[in-house]
Amino acid sequence: MTVTSTAPEALLGVYARVGPLFVAGEGSELIADDGTRYLDCVAGIAVNALGYNHPAFRGAVIGALEKGLVHVSNLYRTEPGERLAEELVARSFADRVFFCNSGAEANEAAFKFARKWSRKTEIVAFTGAFHGRLFASLAATDRPDYRAPFEPLVPGVHIVPLEDWAAADRIISANRTAAVIVEPVQGEGGVRPVDLEWLAFLRELCDARGAALVFDEVQCGLGRTGTLFAYEQTGVVPDLVTLAKPLGGGLPMGAVLLTEAVAAALKPGDHATTFGGGALVATVALDVLRTIAEPGFLAAVREKGEALGAALARLRAASPKVVAVRGRGLMWGIELVEPAAPYVTAARDRGLLVCTAGAQVIRLVPPLVVTREELERAVAILDEVLT
After folding, report:
1. Second label for 5, Cα 20 to 30 Å away, from 43, 230, 236, 260?
2. Is 3 strand, coil or helix?
3. Considering 258, 293, 328, which residue would you say is the last residue of a domain?
4. Cβ atoms 242, 217 nearer than 8 A
5. 212-241 tens-digit pLDDT
6. What are the φ and ψ backbone dihedral angles of 227, each rounded to 5 degrees?
7. What is the CA radius of gyration of the chain?
């Protein structure tokens, strides 16, 4: 049977899809079926770090396909996953790596690893957090409207006020707490860089009380904030870091980086994944990682991020609708006095794709390869719709 319709009725309606039908991409632009180009400052929600049709990504995919090795069970060894793990270890605090397929899976795995290592059960997360939509990661996500239809969720997960020193001291227990999870820069929670002194305080509490400190860098990691890992800018070394979004360059890929101390608690059979670290996606991820990790590439992200931050500060000064601008690198939020959704729509009508991060925040997470000129165009469109 030949299917010619592109109508979305066959898709489960858990997304309210909007806008045009996209059929291609180039650089930092998406191309609709009518040929209209849109400057993409969503990037698959911080996934497409190298934009669209980047030569490193394209070459890695073609090279992997030519070898014919797309998937092999993790019962056996393959070179791409081992090389990618070695590269991540060499470039980070970690001693071991576990591969999976998404950020939510990475966080679920981190919770299991921390429980096995600590022999305790409770997880501490914070207001504004978003860690995924599976049963444990959703329990650690501060979105009551996401949680309510699926309760009861995993028990023993506590969400306490972000940057509340007394609350953290009170809830992180030597007898019960297995892990404390925090985003160094919250994404869905409004693009909020977390106070560095408070992160250091969490490190001290976890050390004193035998809990694992987990940094969720699913959105803010891998170059997004201007360093390869967001933890590098905090002065704090976590026990585990979770990664996903940009790692596979657009292919599904997640990872947990962990210390040998935590890894030593795990034995064969304690956790598993069918597709994690597969040969094709690991080949691509290695080239994506090496491209992003180049010092010149990261320096360019920082420079473009500083320019974008300065332009958004001027936008804030010009528009009474803007309460605050927050961000780091190429991850920025514009907090408004009113709902952000109408402005997202207005920007799209003018050829700019942005998204929300909470009801009143416009989020910009463009490809890391975006140009200064493209960022200037994005700010000009936002200025038009806001002022």
Report:
1. 43
2. coil
3. 293
4. yes
5. 999 999 999 999 999 999 999 999 999 999
6. -125, 160
7. 21
